[in-house]
Amino acid sequence: MNKKLGFYILKRVLLALLTIVIVITVTFFAMQLIPGGPFTSEKAVSPESLERLQAKYGLDKPLIVQYFNYLLSALRFDFGYSIKSRGAVTVNHIISEGMKYSATIGLIAAFIAIVVGVILGSLAAYKHNTIIDRIIMVLSTASVAVPSFIVSTIFLYLFCVVWQILPANGSDWRGFILPTITLSFSPMAYIIRLTRSSTLDVLNSDYIRTAYAKGASFSRVLYKHSLRNSLTPVITYAGPMIAFILTGSLVVEKIYGIPGIGREFVTSITNRDYPEVMGLTIFLTYLVIIMVLVSDILYTVVNPRVDLD
Amino acid sequence: MKFKRLPQVIVLATVGTLCACNGPLPERAAHKDEAIYSATIDGVKKDNLKWADAYDAVIAKTKSTSGAVRNEYLHQAEDILMSTGAIAPIYYYTDIFMENEKMEGFFSSPLGYKFFHRATVDKATEYTVCVGPKGDSFDPAINSAVDGAIVISHVFEGLYRWKQPDAGDVAADLEPAQAASYEKVPGNDGHVKYTFKLRDGIKYSDGTALKASDFANSWARAASGKLAADYGYMFDCIVGYEDTAADEANFKPLSGVKADDEKGELEVELISDVPYFLELTAFPTYAPVKLDKVTGDDWWTTAANYIGNGPLKVSKMDNKDGGSIEFVPNENYWDNANTKVTKLTFALSDDDDNQLANYKKGDWKFIDSVPNDQIETLSKGKDYHVNGQLGTYYVIFNVNDKTLNRTLKGEAEYATFRKALSLLIDRNYICEKIGQAGQEPANTFVGKGIMEKNADGSLSEWTTKSGPKRDGAGYFKVGKNDYEANCAEAIEMIKGLGFKFDGKKFTNIPALTYLYNAGTGHKAIAEYLQGAFKAYGINLKLESQEWATFLNTRKDGNYSIARNGWLADYNDACSFLDMWTTDSGNNDAQFGR
Predict the structure, then answer these.
(1) H runs (alpha helix) in B174-328
(2) ipTM confidence score
(3) Residues of chain B found within 8 Å of residue A44, distances taken between Cβ atoms
């Protein structure tokens, strides 16, 4: 068993490395294809200055040389300096500082989304075709349909300006309440639907009917039999979802004034800040790979019929 | 089997027939070779000049003359520029901000840099304001953003500084700051020499003495090719700039700058009597950086190492959007008697709605940007302020564009067509219904608020002397009642070029494309232009691009018509006119290329 597990982990690690190398390569060359560069600005830099700046940041070397230099340092987790700050800030620093906020908000939002989502989804399944089911489904569809910037702006206006009960920036913990709730809506809605449909499947199966026939109580059926099975699709979804939610959302962070990492994903591209774009993409890739691995392992724990391989 | 080739044959035949029907396109030389400019150099008028011979020559004269003679060359440059029709100004920029009604003592410079160190809010000396998002750099030599400049303007002080105005909140004059006085004497070849006498006992915030050589060394660093700073060119009026800018290995001292630390004097030799030099000494790039603190590119990122000589010093540096920067008074500053604030916090935010929410909640006492859709409601309040900004929003035409090659022959006809299109724009409508920020319609390229010095030493506004007759009439009429007449004139102009007019619309003008960068305000103006031109049968296709892509496309001249905007770096017309010389990196219209 251990040998098998060992081989499995080795295989996953090698696949992960391959994924990262592919991501680095595609991102690197895609960024080079986009017009403009890190020094493109409204007030043009003189050609001499441009040459000097490009030499300073290693952008004058042949593309292949730049690519390999970058590949080697990225695999060592050294993502270089942000060009926009003219070398004052390292990309690692931007990521670590931003993640403090984005990860906190993201984890809480993910927790809310999973817990509330599973509860409401199960409830909707058990009360299938009743008014409770309909209300839950309408609310979950609506929360996905309304864009997050509208929800955020309305919340900001109501809670911070009109009722004045929460601060409009990330200065203390109360400023985190609205962003976590707003961020949880979209994944929560999806989890509700997932849970509801998989629970419905499970409830109609033979072994549940057998359990009831043998006199099991509702809560025993729920915890011992149905929940574990209906949760498997949720686990599969939750892994990558957590990776993406941890890295924040541009809209939510901008509107609520949270100094997270979400906005960096967009601004770094606008700024053509190559090291930062690469660093952020690779970081997200690492996160997704880890979370997918975690959810795969959890999947086999919850459902022992499934083999790791 | 021979029928396999049939589809290809059909295609080729169709294409060939179409080509033959349209006729081969006429051979046309690029119209940069067909010059129509006139220029008067040293009293001699010359016609039929190429762009480089006319415009570049006039701009070169502005660098070697001064006073009224220089002003006239600058106005002539604007005449030549506007005669091409390639610049269609729309409005002059404004600066909107919300200032708590109980704030007193706030003022700003003509460039929009805001000063809070003398301000209190309802007598309170501790408060929070927001002037923009996180700064890319607070190194005075490297910074090129307004919000960075505002931080630097509180932490550093130059030889001269903007004087708090007696009335209103925009400073108009400069006063001695780190220098107590200066003398100016003429030199050889039109050079001038400024000798600044530094104030006694001036210090950095860490208690160390500030010397004349600190200025000389800071300027050399900022101007050097080694640093390749965006604003390095601000030193190009100083003798020795070319050598310093060419040196990529060292911070070569500017040969025109001599520092005497014992006497406390700084001597600066300029290549000409540049009228805005004192203003440059107040500009953030000219700030005296304490070079032994510059230990690496990140020297400015910690409060302990970010040492300056201005009214405030940084006590907490949390430079990110959603973070804040805290300032406290610099106890070693010479003018502390005038500093009122005891703890100033700059909250950093890049979102208009977020700024407004914090302002309305009362947490922030000042915000520098307002969501566009809120302007109408907010403008009714007493805390809503609009100041002029030295800049112009305009439409730019690529002079090398070949879309109308089949009908228009020669640069003169192209110029007429562009000017006609410009007349079809209702600038008052754009200012009132789209901009809605108190902008004024523009009929010059040089912005409103730019000043020129008269022979008697007094100052006049450039726009009061603008236009071919120097009477302030500008280059076309922009009164509210002039639009109809402008349209009628435009129609006659276009008809005269040979396009067919059916009484209401033109029927054979090829479609043109208007390029703009993504943003709601720009889109609204683009859509207005499309509608305004369509009414006369001129089809304008709209294309939007992401910011950096857009900048690239425009600079490379891969467009027909595009939107553009320019903000002055200092209060002199050359800040608007230097950019159009043939070699300039900002010559988006591709003049002379």
Answers:
(1) 212-223, 241-246, 277-281
(2) 0.84
(3) 555, 584-586
